[in-house]
Amino acid sequence: MLRYVIKRLLLLIPVLLGVTLIIFTIMAIQPGDPGRMILGENASQEAVEKLNDQLGVNRPFVVRFVSYLYNAVFKLDFGKSYRTSQPVFNDVFARAGTSFKIAFNGIFMATVVGIPLGILSAVKQYSAVDTFSRVTAMLAAAIPPFWLGMMLIFVFALKMQWLPSNGIESWKSFILPMVTLGIPYAGSQLRMTRSTMLETIRQDYVRTAKAKGVPQGIIIFRHALRNALLPIITITATSFGGLLGGAVITESVFSMPGLGTLIVTGIRQRDTPSVLAATIFLAFMFGVIMLVVDLIYAFVDPRIKAKYSR
Q: Which domains does the chain have, with CATH numbers?
């Protein structure tokens, strides 16, 4: 198992290098002048050129990229933000907690709502409950998150004044973002759980257990659900990883300082070090999450654990 973990961590290195190259290239070919962005339109061209020389953006692309990799790998120096002149990971770590809370709350709601409804829909196939669940899942997946977020703000923040509409002042600030992100992902969880459970409960061992008189609850939760968990775990983990950096719209609607807004602001202001640091951090965290998922597979399915131990 330890050998497998080390191997997977080493495989993250080329992934991170590839992500760094892609983002570095995109930021390099993006139109705009970092010096002009920082100093403003009224600054003289001489001052802009001087600042660009200090930032190193006038050097050839290959030289800049190799220099960035050298500093990042051997000195753990990912540069300073063009906007704040502070080490970029100060901003990344300051905002990462908010993004993790938003993503965790969203995927928690999606799991709590989607998986039980998916199981119930599969067990009660073609019933009124199944029809209601499937229609609800399609509607949830079709709702645009930004529209849902604004409607929730209008109803619960402006009209009823139960919850705050922006910021991160207290735990109440995360309720509306949780619902905004959780409802669409709950639809995906419901559909995946229903389809995998339907496939599992039609297996021979389930029919054998029913013929032996095993209670339905034990059949569903101890036998069928355990064998249906692998794809459910996969979609949950990938959704969580996607929410870490993909909740840009939600962060913008609720004015929450997360990694998504950091990346968007950095792109607009040509703040290459901030964009690179945030993207590398998200890529690393996504790789770690997928590694954890594979390890969870080993506990769910002993056959997979036997492969890891080789």
A: 88-308 (1.10.3720.10)
